[in-house]
Design brief:
Elements lengths: L2 E5 L5 H12 L4 E4 L5 H7 L2 E7 L14 H4 L12 E7 L12 H11 L3 E3 L2 E2 L11 E2 L2 E2 L2 E3 L8 H17 L2
Parallel strand pairs: 1-2, 1-3, 3-4, 4-5, 4-9
Antiparallel strand pairs: 6-8, 7-8
The structure holds flavin mononucleotide.
């Protein structure tokens, strides 16, 4: 199954991570959220990976600080039933330890409402943080990446997660 990787980024970290995932996932394609026909691209994809940073610290809504915020209310209305969808979140677990990667959860719930088959939940064990809205039932609802403090862990995290989502996508 081919993944379409859609990202939005304010200072480039999320874009870089999306590019690295694109290399790890055979046959995948990379899309800048700011340059796509949003409904068509998402609905016509076979499987989706949506990558977002968190910028609007402490906000209940529109936490990304990127174009995802403009689309977030429309996502539940998209036709995405049973489409495999994984979320990737960029954040800073030291400076924003109480809000670590909060934007992931908002995207997760929106895509789940649209009927997406949510894949790629991640154990909290390898992360140090105080709180995150993105912890659901004891697991992160996607892959958190911290380029500000733990960039040396990113390669391993991306590789492990890529293997997981390929497996979860194939084990339908
Ligand atoms: C003003 C500001 C607010 C931020 N708020 C949060 C936050 O609430 N939670 C978090 O995990 N990271 C937060 N961050 C860290 C960014 O999400 C992180 O640096 C990320 O890698 C940026 O991704 P981008 O370069 O793709 O925009 C914040 C950074 C800044 C400068």
């Amino acid at each position: 199954m081919r993944f379409t990787i859609v990202y939005a980024s304010a200072t480039g970290h999320t874009e870089d991570i999306a590019e690295r995932l694109n290399i790890l996932l055979p046959g995948s394609e990379l899309k800048d959220l700011d340059r796509i026909d949003f409904i068509k691209e998402l609905e016509e994809s076979e499987a989706l990976i949506c990558c977002t940073p968190t910028w609007n610290t402490g906000s209940d809504v529109k936490r990304s600080g990127t174009t995802w915020d403009d689309h977030i209310d429309n996502i539940p209305h998209l036709k995405l039933k049973n489409k495999p969808i994984g979320i990737v979140g960029l954040g800073d677990s030291a400076a924003f330890s109480k809000y670590f990667c909060d934007a992931m959860e908002e995207l997760y719930r929106s895509f789940e409402s649209a009927g997406g088959r949510m894949i790629g939940h991640v154990s909290i064990e390898q992360y140090i943080f105080d709180e995150s809205k993105s912890v659901i039932d004891g697991m992160f609802c996607g892959l958190p990446i911290d380029e500000d403090n733990e960039s040396e862990k990113t390669d391993d995290r991306l590789q492990a997660w890529s293997r997981t989502i390929i497996q979860e996508t194939n084990s339908q």
